[in-house]
Amino acid sequence: MSDTTPVTNKAFGSQAKWRDKNPKAVWAQAALRSALKRGLAIAKPCEVCGAEPAEAHHPDYDKPAEVIWLCRLHHKAEHRRMKAERCK
Ligand SMILES: [Zn+2]
Ligand SMILES: [Zn+2]
After folding, report:
1. Of the ligands numbered here, which is closest to the C-alpha atom of 61?
2. Cα(25) to centroid of ligand 2, in Å?
3. Which whole number is the average pLDDT over 72-88?
4. Of 5, 8, 23, 35, which residue is 20 to 30 A from 17 by alpha carbon distance?
5. How far is CA 65 from CA 43, 56, 60, in A?
6. How many angstroms does the Cα of residue 54 sit away from the middle of ligand 1?
7. What are phi and psi of 70, to 5 degrees?
């Protein structure tokens, strides 16, 4: 490892690993971020419970503009559900 940047928290390290494994997800999130900045997408409350702020969930990373807004809790639940479905 030649990275000289001090790691300030553990979450950052796992995020970096996640980025390596999910380049498409990173790209979709970046595309969405710029869409939000330009007013092409609007952040919404959680579609399940209405909590704010919600996170953007991409059902299909090939369609970065197609997102479902979910709070942290329901976002995690949705990923668990997707994972379970893939294992079937
Ligand atoms: Zn929710
Ligand atoms: Zn998601």
Report:
1. 2
2. 9
3. 92
4. 35
5. 12, 10, 9
6. 8
7. -135, 145
